[in-house]
Amino acid sequence: MNDMTPEDRKSALKGMGTSRKRVEDARFTQGKGNYVDDIKLPGMLFGDFVRSPYAHARVTSVRKDTAMALPGVIAVLTAEDLAPLGLHWMPTLAGDKQMVLADGKVLYQGQEVAFVVAENRYIAADAVELVEVEYEELPVVTNPFKAMDADAPTLREDIAGKMDGAHGPRKHNNHIFTWEQGDKEATESVLSGADVVAEEMIYYHRTHPCPLETCGSVASMDKVNGKLTLYGTFQAPHAVRTVASLISGIAEHNIRVISPDIGGGFGNKVGVYPGYVCSIVASIVTGKPVKWVEDRMDNLMTTAFARDYHMHGKISATTDGKITGLWCHTTADHGGFDACADPTKFPAGFMNICTGSYDIPVAYLAVDGVYTNKAPGGVAYRCSFRVTEASYFIERMMDILAIKLDMDPVELRMKNFVRKDQFPYQSALGWEYDSGDYHTAMDKALKAVGYDNLRKEQAEKLAAFKAGESRSLMGIGTAFFTEIVGAGPVKNCDILGLGMFDSCEIRIHPTGSAIARLGTISQGQGHATTFAQILASEIGIPADDITLEEGDTDTAPYGLGTYGSRSTPVAGAATAMAGRKIRAKAQMIAAYLLEVHDDDVEFDIDRFVVKGAPERFKTMKEIAFAAYNQAIPGIEPGLEAVSYYDPPNMTYPFGAYICVMDVDVDTGVADIRSVYALDDCGTRINPMIIEGQVHGGLTEALAIAMGQEIAYDEMGNVKTGTLMDFFIPTAWETPNYITDHTTTPSPHHPIGAKGVGESPNVGGVSMFSNAVHDAFRPFGLTQSHMPHDHWRIWKTANQLGLHG
Amino acid sequence: MIPGSFDYHRPKSVAEATGLVARYGDTARVIAGGHSLIPMMKLRMTDLDHLVDLQDIGELRGISVNGQSVEIGAMTTQHELIASEVLTEVAPIITEAALQIADPQVRYMGTIGGNVANGDPGNDMPGLMQCLDATYTLSGPDGTRDVKARDFYEAAYFTAREEEEILTKIYFQANGAGYAYEKQKRKIGDYATAASAVLIAKEGDVCSFASIAMTNLADTPIYADAASSELVGSGLDQAAIDAAVAAAIDAIDPAEDNRGPIEFKKHVAGVILRRAIERAISRA
User: Fold this and answer.
1) Which fold has domain A36-138+214-262+269-302?
2) What is the ipTM of this complex?
3) Rounded to a whole number, what is the distance in angstroms from the first to the last CA of chain B?
4) How do residues A749-771 score in pLDDT, each as one tens digit?
5) Domain ranges in chain A?
6) pTM given for the model
7) Residue A789: which H helix or E strand, with range?
8) Which residues of A touch B (CB under 8 A)?
9) Is B118 domain-assigned?
């Protein structure tokens, strides 16, 4: 290495800023991944659920005899069987409780009623049909506003009359909480005296993360040594271990939770599901390993949905377009149980980021959570907690205000952006934005797409449409988002009392290679690739020589897991900090070996050099070996470090997105012509992975905005329970993406990184939806609800009188 | 998503297959590509004890073209239809339609016989076969009989095929008319929101022949006889096309589903048909 130039030595590390190929992909692309359903243990049994066909009903009897008589059936568990263990209900992450198996009634279609355990999954499926359940149907409530009617049926009889909830007082038996932020009085006073006020109901429909791999678990209780091993699709394995210990009574050191390879999470795998609990109980009861794996319909119908926010908004401005205030009341449809996955003090997540990227002097937000006869959940689907809802709300309100002011939507945004010199910026709803340069990002985006020319072309297309020469309208969708990620500071972020720090532990081996273990868990993000790159830059060992391990609670340090774009902001920081501890010890070893004072050596890419005498150095490889083979006075042998990182603040990635589409008013088909996405995620660790993340997030945003929904009929039947009706775009429906960036490092993060995986979903949904609305703006459209599938776009055109 | 248990049979000849179906009666179903049947079995909406797989029956495969006469074995896959140069030569509308069915993976398995025999109103081939005025040959224990595609469909999943019969081949007479298969769908792999098959021939400027069929706009495919009549003898002018579209919309009876309400489907059916007619005219 001695004859290498500094540039050569640096590039050999494949550290931060390198588009290093993903080390995970060799196994994934060759079918060598190890997912939960790949786990096969000797004697393993298989569990499957009897599910309710009704959305609201009393369960009057469950008869097991016929099912038990089927050869190969080992057990049929009901709430009655779980009750003596206290496991027929379980706590949710949101301070509510949820039935593991129907305890007297069911609250949504697909709810778990009984758990059949059999020798294999085929027998289990046959036995499910043989369990005889009698139901007595009850009136169904699928509309959260009707749920709050005085005479609405009480859904949660278990807490009827109990008017103090987990997040304060309840107003109604179907009410969960009211969460208020900001200054109501001041905001309403500004609104009442404002020059211009735009008011609208913005509905962000119910959808679902729908990861490629569904949820599942394998529980294995070893009755001899008293140890429970639980494999599962967990985005937070350590938290699962703690929760499993608390609810099962098994000591935490006797539980080992393993998240193996995970085939996508997007928030769906944060929650705790009845299947996990039942597989554990069944293993305890039978003494054998028990596997439970959802099918696609189970997944779409019962495990954590996302969104379902009815956001009533008012925004005020001066006549020249300076925003003076923002008001929002949200009715949040939580389904039958409050199983949202938010930090404890934030029952509506970070919805109070809804002032967006704009300098809004005064604001008020209230969120009412409501029970309905729908599946529980409310997870952050590829976003930080409720941030896509917040971002969609403000980005729609900005476009609607622009209409009211007869202004270009970009001009309105530029006029109201938080300025670069205002950071760190205190928002009216209580956040401190760490850093940003919004005007520069927007300017770059406008130039890149040729915004003025697009508007000219749009005007020409509109003239042609009005002249009867065309039946297509051009829409330009602009969105500017600010994410809030990296939960989070322990002082205000915890889940079930567990502070949301994260961790990294590093061991350098004698030959100069290393292993690092983290408290997070990759679900496709490429942690094994990028975290090794952070370390390579921090400790001067090539990324290729560093193994990354996550997901095994017996070996990895405690952490809160991967969701809300928190891995890089929190665990990435822990990695850098642990690396710096390694470097500090390496410095002492190097000084000893070079026979100089500690302060006389300095780190140089992959080595320590004597200041002023760069020919005198020790490489990290040499230092690692010395750490294990030399007795160095005053220094312990070995080279290891661990860091638990509690971030001082969240990070605030942002971006400017613009797309162009042509809308066929006769068929409702929207043809997306181009998509440009500029992301500023602070320091960029691996540009190729960032680009991949942006592509994936945009595609999920496209799905949500243009067709994906969990829809119910009035009886509470799920209408979109298969991939025939639940829209997952294929390559055919996916447009080409142009990605771009600016770089505004986070001032408080050790390497300045902010997180990126979820940004494209946060910005993308608003962008696509704004484009559809923009196409119809000349005809008076202010708001039409997503998803913008063919018939809804057609209906908009029809209502605007465009079908003659 | 696991089917109940069943016995699997893999006959080598049509006679053997019809024998199995006759023996097991309504507890048996034949399987071709399986794209409709297997999901129904997994959802346990179809209950059967005997699955009779037709894929090893060589006599059910293949395309033969003799002049304008076309004969297609029931087990011929959509992929084979697309890949057949002789078929594309005489009946390019089949290629155009098959390319709009699902995706390549499905088309490698999905067969024309399964598509027409299942009676699923969402399938594309039944409407197309009505447009082409094709005939289906059915084999049963008492020999074979022929049924016109236009007479075959009774209601969703109900057809003129008797339980013990197997649809073995499809034949029709091509006529070199201008053609178009136009389909609107939500995404690749979806059934049509609305689709139409159109054949038009001209003598000079006058329409000498027209055939129009609509897909997934009623509980059976719709052969729109009245719509075709509006075009024949006309100069294919705007008024004639308007009349044909109006007649076709009159003939359909779409149901509301996740693709949209009835009003929308009727509107889109008109738009799609108009586009198909215009494309067919341009090729006539």
Assistant:
1) Aldehyde Oxidoreductase; domain 3 (3.90.1170)
2) 0.96
3) 48
4) 999 999 999 999 999 999 999 99
5) 6-33+502-645, 36-138+214-262+269-302, 305-486+650-799
6) 0.97
7) none
8) 121-122, 125-126, 129, 295-297, 666-669, 707, 711, 719-720, 724-725, 727, 729-730, 732-733, 789-791, 794-795, 798, 803
9) yes
